[in-house]
Amino acid sequence: MRILQLHSNFLEYEPVRKEIASAEEAEKRKVRFDEVVVLFTSVEKGDNSAVAEKAMEDTKKYLDQIGPNRIFIYPYAHLSTDLAQPAQALRVLKEMEKYAKEMGIETYRAPFGWNKQFTISIKGHPLAEQSRSYSAATLAEAVVEKPVLRKEYLILTLDGTTYDPEDYPYKPEDANFRLLVEKEALGKESQAKGEPEYIRHMKKFGFDWETMSDIGHMRYSPDATFIYDAVAAYSSAVADSIQIPVYRVRGTNMFNLDIPPVREHAELFGDRLYQVDVENRSFVLRYAACHQQFAILRHWLISYRNLPFGAFEVADSYRLEQSGELLLSFRVRRMNMPDLHVFCKDIGEAKEWAFKLHEKVYDEVEKLGRDYYSLYNLTSKEFFETNKEWFKELVRREGKPVLLCFYPPGINYYWVLNIEYHIIDMMNRPREIGTVQIDVGNAKRFGIKYVDSEGKENHPIILHSALIGTIERYIYTLFDSALRMKHPTLPLWASPTQVRMIPVSSEHLAYAESLADALEQVGIRVDVDDREMTVANKVREAETMWISYIAIVGKKEVETALTSLRSRVDETQRTITIAELSDSVMKDVEGKPQLPSHLPRLLSTRPRFT
Q1: The pTM is what?
Q2: Which stretches within 298-387 are classed as H helix?
Q3: Tens digit of each residue's pLDDT (9 = 90 or more) over 91-148
Q4: pLDDT digits over 561-598, tens only?
Q5: Using an 8 Å Cβ cutoff, are 509 and 528 in contact?
Q6: For 271, left (φ over 0), alpha (ψ -120 to 50), or beta?
C-alpha cells in the first residue's frame, strides 16, 4: 500500500464518471471538507486487513501529533504500478475506514472506481506532506496485535439454568464437556504433544499431503479414494433421509468479488478467503456450497407450497487456514463439504427443521458409537431469551449441558444461531465435526424469493448444515473412532476390501477365485492374495490393513466347499459356507452405500501404492 498523506486546509472533489463496472454508487456533485488530512491511497497486490489496520494506527499517531481528528481516504491508483484487483482494493479501503472509525477518527471516503476532479489546499508546515508505504510481507514479520472480539460465554443445562463457565458445578460425567468449555470459553489449550496416532494409519491407507501443491491440500491413493467416494455417497444418502425434496445442483468454485452479494458474503465470512486474480478481476474460491446454490436458486420460481425443500452438493471448498494449524484430514485448505441447505418459509418453520437436523446430526455420530459436545454461537441475546423453550428442547435432545457463546452486538452477521458439534479425540482435544446454522440474511442478499399464499414475495430462512461434517472430517472421525477399538476397523461399508481370500498355495487359487466370483455377484468387495508369500505374512498384512474378513482356502476347504474365516469384526475364527459369509456382509452394510472396487482382484497384478 502506498499513501500520500496531506494535511489540508480543504479538499473539494466531484465524481465525474465510472471507470469500472464494479464502481460504487455515488452522486455527481461537489463535496468539500475543511481542516482534513487527505490520504491518497493506492492498494497494492497482497495488501490485506493487517496492512489496513497498520496504516490507520500510524494515521492515528499522526493526528495526535498535529491536532485535527478528521481524515478523508481518497482512492488514487497513480501512486503504484502493482495495483490490487478492484474487489480486493475496495475491501482494503473499507477496512481502513472501519479501523479508523473504531479508533475514534472522524472518517470519510471517496467512492471507489470513479474518475474524479478535485481541488486541494495543503498547509505549509513541515509535517503537512508525507508519503508512507506498507506491505503484508513486512508486517507478517512483526507481531501484530489484533483487536479482541469480546464474546460472552454461558453454560446452559437441561432445565434451562445458565451458569458462568467459571462457576459451573461439574460432575464426573462432564469431563469431556469440560474440555470443550476450557478450550472455547477459558482459552486453555490442550497439552497433548506429538503427532496424532490416526495420521500414521491414514497414510497407510493412502491419505497424505500433496507436496507439489499449496500446503494444506490432500491427495488420495486408490484405497483412500475409495473411502472418500464411499463417504461422499453416504453423505448424499444422509441428506436424502430428511424426508423433504432435496435437489442436487453443481457448479463452479470461483465467484466474482465485483458482484455485490458475493463480495458482501465474503466480507462477512472473514479473513480465511482463498482469492484468485484473473484478467484484472478478483475471484473468491468458495468456502462452502453457499455461493453456487444461492446463485442458482435466485432464478427459481418458488411458491410457499414448495417449502420446505433442500439443496445439496458435495462442494470442493477452500479456506486459507494458518499453516501452523494444518492437520491431515481435519484442518486443510481444500476440503469437500457435503453442504445441505434447507429453505423455510419463516423463522418458526426454520426452528422446526433446525431441530430435525439437530437430531439427524446426533443420530449419525451415535452410529459410530460417539457423542457430541456442543457450542451454540448466537448473535443476539434477544433471540436466545425469546426462544428459550426451544433451546431447552435442543439441549434435552443432547442429554447434557451445552456451551453458549454470545457474539458482541452491532456486527452484521447473516446468522442468528450457529451450532458446532464437537467430538473429543484420542488426544482429549475438542474437534468440530458437524454444524447447523440459521441464516436470516443471505436470501435477501442474493435475491432468493418465494411467493406466499397471498401472492406476496418473501425471502426464505435458510438452514446451513453439514450433517456428518466435511468428507475429510468424517473420515478423520472414522479413524479416531477405529483407534478406540481393541482391533481397529472401519465400518464395513467404508472398507476398501471387505473380504480377502488367501489361498494356501497356487493349487487352491482357482477355488479361491470361484468363491470371489460368488461374492462379487452380490456386490461384495473381495480380492485374492495370490502372491508368493507365506500364509502367515499374508494374514498379517491383511490385518494391518484392517480387512474385516480374511478367508483361508486350502485343501480342506476345497474338499468341503467351505472356507476358514477370520473375522476382525467379532474376533472369531470359524468355518462357514460362502453363502453364510455373503449374508453376514450384506446384513452389515444394509442401508449403506455399497460401492464396487475398481482395483484388480489379484494382488500380484497391482503396483505397490506408496
Answers
A1: 0.80
A2: 347-366, 381-386
A3: 899 999 999 999 999 999 999 999 999 999 998 887 889 889 998 767 655 444 444 5
A4: 878 888 987 778 889 999 999 999 999 999 999 999 99
A5: yes
A6: alpha
Closest-CA residue to 8 (of 70, 54, 60, 64) = 70
**CB 406, CB 463: distance < 8 Å:** no
Helix/strand/coil (H/E/C) assignment for every residue in 519-557 = HHHCCCCEEECCCCCCHHHHHHHHHHCCCCEEEEECHHH
Give the residues across from 17 on adjacent strands: 115
Cell numbers that stand for 604 in this block: 500380484
Tell me the C-alpha distance between 464 and 236, whole Å: 15
- Cα–Cα distances in angstroms (integers) from residue 146 to residues 150, 263, 324, 445, in the given order: 12, 23, 18, 29
Q: Do domains 152-191+205-251+286-482 and 492-605 have the same CATH topology?
A: no
The amino acid sitting at 450 is Y
Q: What are phi and psi of 402, to 5 degrees?
A: -125, 160
Burial class (CB in 10 A: 0-12, 13-18, 19+), 167: exposed
pLDDT digits (tens, 9 = 90+) for 245-272: 999 999 999 999 888 888 888 877 766 8
31-42 and 2-18 as β-strands: parallel, antiparallel, unpaired?
antiparallel
Angle at 267 between CA 87 and CA 459, to 5 degrees: 110
Taking CA atoms, 502 is separated from 467, 541, 564, 583, 596, in Å, by: 39, 11, 10, 20, 20
CATH topology of domain 2-140: D-tyrosyl-trna(Tyr) Deacylase; Chain: A; (3.50.80)
φ/ψ of 320, rounded to 5, equals -80, 70
Q: Record the cell numbers describing residue 159, joined without a space.
A: 432445565
CATH top class, domain 152-191+205-251+286-482: alpha beta
Q: 152 pairs with which residues across the strands? A: 406
Residue 343 contacts residue 307 (beta carbons within 8 Å)? yes
Rg (CA), the chain: 30
- Give burial (CB, 10 Å; 0-12/13-18/19+) of 466: buried
Q: What percent of the chain has pLDDT over 70?
A: 97
Residue 339 and residue 345: Cα distance in Å, rounded?
Answer: 20
Domain layout of the chain by residue ranges: 2-140, 152-191+205-251+286-482, 492-605
